[in-house]
Amino acid sequence: MEKSLARYIWSNTRLEQIWILLVVAASMIPYFLSFDLPKQIVNGPIQGKGFEHPGDTQTFMHIAFDMPLLGHVEIFQGVQLTRMWMLVALSMVFLALVVLNGLFKLYINTYKGRLGERMLRRIRFELIDRVLRFPPVHFKRVKPAEIATMIKDEVEPMGGFTGDAFVQPALLGGQAVTALIFIIMQNFWLGMIAAAIVAVQAIVIPRMRKRLLELGRQRQLTARELSGRVGEIVDGIGTIHANDTTNLERADIAHRLGLIFSIRYDLYQWKFLVKFINNFLAQVTPFLFYLIGGFLALQGRLDIGQLVAVINAYKDLPGPLKELIDWDQSRQDVQVKYNQVVEQFSVDNLIDPKIQVVSHAPAGRITHALVATNLTVVDDSGARVLDHVSVEIQPGERVAIVGDSGAGGEYLAEAFGRLIWPDSGRVSIDGRDILELPESLTGRRIAYASSETFFFHGTLRSNLLYGLKHAPLVAPVYSEDEATKAKWSVAEARRAANPEFDLNSDWVDYAAAGATGPDDIYSAIRPVLDAVTMSQDIFDMALRSNVDAAAHQDLTSRIVELRQALRLRLEEEKLEDLVVPFEFDAYNLQATVGENLLFGTLKRPQMTNRKLAAHPYFRQIFAETGLVSDLYDMGLEIAENAVELFTDLPPDHPFFQQLTFMTAEDIPTYEALLQKLNGKGYEAATDDERAAIIRLSFSYIEPRHRFGLLTQVLMEKIVQARAKFYENIPADLAKVIERYDPERFTASATLMDNVLFGRIAHQQANAPERIHQIMYDVFGRLGMHDGVLSIGLDFDVGSGGKRLTNVQRQKLNLGRALLKRADYIICNRPLPALDHRVQDQIARAILGEFDSDGYAPAIIWVLSNPSFAELFDRVLVFDHGSLVESGSTTDLLEKNGMFKELLS
After folding, report:
1. Per the record's keyword annotation, is Membrane included, yes or no (predicted)?
2. 441-460 pLDDT tens trace
3. How does DSSP classify residue 352?
4. H or E segment at 341?
């Protein structure tokens, strides 16, 4: 990287800087004229110079020049004005100059801002581009939070400085010099006083600010280290809690914050001392002007207009001068930060940019062997984890790698996947080093999966298809306005040296996955998910999801057909009792009291239970039907039963998982409430206490909780209240409540609730599992598996995929690698979180899947269990970084060597 920030800025913005410097030079003309004009106004029309007699006139706007060779050239002879009109005319010119100077400043500042933001965009992209080209070993030495902080925060001042790098000294220096020249033209000695003060400020202040730069550098380093440490705490929070080291971390953070505080305190002390001296010098000069200038005016050696002009000119001198000194400090500060960035991002052995050049064309098949020759890998401690290993993997060959953990096989897999670079030897294809091949080939035709998983924040779909997003393949369709914005965005990207890719394009290489487009991609995804036993997980996620009706209209429009098919299937298998359907005129025993009251769902977040309970209409219905006292009595009995049964249990007791209407933390609160209300009626409770009691009844389900509180009379009352509630429901409530309708899809309910249109019977053994299986079969029978899969793939995996279980992450990671349909698939102990039986099932499914459709890639699998080796054509046995045995399982068993020992 370029080590000088000034050279970096000039080389990338040369033409823009020249243009704005020309504008700055042009702005000095009206700036100078604005200094001279007050003197003309004071001496002329105000003091009457040239207007000694009534009716005298003066020439206004006479424009003439004495030109070499051409002589005297008159452009405009001017107009004659009286004293009053001359005052008006000169004042209007002064106003025009003020506006013109303001417009120059507006244009210059706007141009500088755009130039700075463009340069900030350029440098941030360049740094991220370098991160993408770091050698793998470098990521073990840096903290992600520190890198992110540098790119996000530490380069921010460089963008602002870009516009000021050349323009600011030219503009401010030009203004200061213009004001100084004008003062000298009025009076030499006053000019010398101003020049002397300027010289002191220009020499002393920058020297004093060197200490500020050093303190600023220390502050930047300590803040970056704090950011990295906080990132470590977030990533290692499980380890911290498991080892009771929270207070150690608090002590570490407090120490770092104390160090930052001391640095910043010193910085503030020194900063305000410098500011005090600078302000003092700036205020001394007007004092001298008033004293000496006034003395000269009294002697008649300086007229009043000149003195006013000098003071007015000096008024504009300290500002530019101070800003010029600030600019110099900013320049040095930004250069220090830039040096730190250059130091951090100047890494040896960066990946050649040619290797990562985008390729829109499909990658050709790899038809040659993957060859490791004298491969040696040394870890960070200097130990050889691979020692002169040579092995050749033929296209289509199935190879198992076995050995103890750390024996070397996993490092060979990482070398094949380009995740580590060998210290000597090489991995090659057709005689070419794999590290010299473009990623558009290796990244598409070689797939790698291990137990170390990472998923980007987004949906399951975006993460599963991530391995197919190599280049923008299909441009989006834009409206006229959107197309204009897109063109502007591309033009700005070009100016900032960013790539002109359109993120809104379709990047998915459907053909690589064996599909023709987005319409049939699920036919390629489903077999992969089945092979890694992930289909049922995604189906369950879909059932628990709320469905976007507009995005999945093909499924939501057939919701009635689905409900009927489910009912028919349950009747066929004599399982009608598994589901209790919703009926408007009947109470559903398997639903909560609250669900029976509402007979619908709330559109969240527009409406919540708390908001609904506070609504005047809802409270009115409660009062008219008498349900308030009934549900209060019911809630009181629930509280008494719960407190009696659970008060002595520890908070983590599994019984609390069945207690849906209160938590372990609520028990003491309700215990105290019961003691207060013991023997007292409904009227004795406050509004908040009534709400807390009634709330318990809303979550009550008789077959599940079995307190015997739901009488037939109360159920009939609830059904009557439901009908009354919907008779005259106000418009504001009707908009946020979706009433259950057997002929309509309910957008605010889950997919499962929509299909069931009822509740699963709690008293039936394994009812949820049986219902899930039946629903899975019903979706398949109606040809709607793809629709359900699409809904499940909308699931947000969270930061780093942490909303998925460890098992799900490993399955999804392996599925992502398989979906690429690469020529070489490398599985480096990809499923250690699963038991050996499931690993064996998945391995057999994957090998069988590829055998069945004519696609036969080479598979290199580092096995956690050597007994699976019989599934492969060849077995490589590693020990202490060396390849000790190679051959089929039959041959290796006959040798009675290390492979047989691993099996025993």
Report:
1. yes
2. 999 999 999 999 989 888 99
3. P
4. helix 318-345
Specify the residue for token string 């003091």: 47
End-to-end CA distance of the chain: 56
Contacts of 284 (CB under 8 A, 6+ apart): 197
pLDDT digits (tens, 9 = 90+) for 515-528: 999 888 998 999 99
CA 150/CA 155 separation, integer angstroms = 6
Residue 582 half-sphere exposure toward CB, CA atoms < 13 A: 25
Alpha carbon distance 639, 504 (integer Å): 55
Helices (H) and strands (E) in the chain, counts: 36, 20
Give alpha helix (H) positions in 604-749: 609-614, 616-625, 627-646, 667-677, 687-698, 702-705, 712-727, 731-734
Closest-CA residue to 189 (of 324, 307, 312, 35) = 307
Nearest to 755 by CA among 568, 509, 574, 587: 568
Closest to 234 (Cα-Cα) out of 357, 148, 307: 148
424-429 and 398-402 beta bridge pairing: unpaired
Q: What is the DSSP letter of 546?
A: B
CB 426 within 8 A of CB 902: no
Residue 579: partners with Cβ closer than 8 Å, 6 or more residues away: 566, 570, 756, 758, 759, 760, 761, 771
Tokens of 279: 């302000």
User: And the tokens for 285?
Assistant: 């000069």
For residue 429, the one-letter residue type is I
Instruction: Tell me the per-residue pLDDT of 301-331, one tens digit each, with 9 for 90 and over.
Output: 656 655 666 666 556 566 676 677 677 777 7
377: left (phi over 0), alpha (psi -120 to 50) or beta: beta
pTM given for the model: 0.78
Q: With the C-alpha atoms ordered 539, 540, 545, 547, is the resulting torsion angle positive or negative?
A: positive
CATH (residue range 5-64+75-158+179-345): 1.20.1560
Q: Quick one: which of 202, 203, 159 has its CA closest to 337?
A: 159
Distance between CA atoms of residues 40 and 894, nearest Å = 112
Mark residue 179 as left, alpha or beta (left: phi above 0; alpha: psi -120 to 50; beta: remaining): alpha
Q: What pLDDT score was predicted for residue 390?
A: 95
* Residue 59 CA to its chain's centroid (Å): 67
pLDDT over 60 at 294, yes or no: yes
Identify the pLDDT of residue 502: 87
Provide the residue ranges of all domains of the chain, joining segments of one domain with +: 5-64+75-158+179-345, 370-455+804-902, 603-736
Q: Which helix (H) or strand (E) holds 473?
A: strand 469-474
The pLDDT of 277-296, averaged and rounded, is 64
Q: What average pLDDT does this structure show over 28-54?
A: 76
DSSP calls for 217-256 = HHHHHHHHHHHHHHHHHHHTHHHHHHTT-HHHHHHHHHHH
What is the pLDDT, as a whole number, of residue 331? 79
Stretch 128-146: mean pLDDT, rounded? 84
H or E element that contains 494: helix 480-495
Q: How far apart are CA 412 and CA 402, in angstroms?
A: 11
Residue 218, amino acid: Q
Residue carrying structure tokens 């036919």: 523
d(C-alpha 421, C-alpha 433), whole Å: 11
The model's confidence at residue 510, banded by pLDDT at 50, 70 and 90, is: very high
Burial pattern 72-85, b for ≥16 Cβ within 10 A else e, equals eeeeeeeeebebee
Q: What class does CATH assign to 370-455+804-902? A: alpha beta
Residues 851-904 have pLDDT tens digits of 666 788 999 999 988 988 999 999 999 999 999 999 999 999 988 889 988 887
The residue among 412, 368, 374 whose CA lies nearest residue 390 is 374
Q: Tens digit of pLDDT for each residue in 368-396?
A: 999 999 999 998 888 899 999 999 999 99
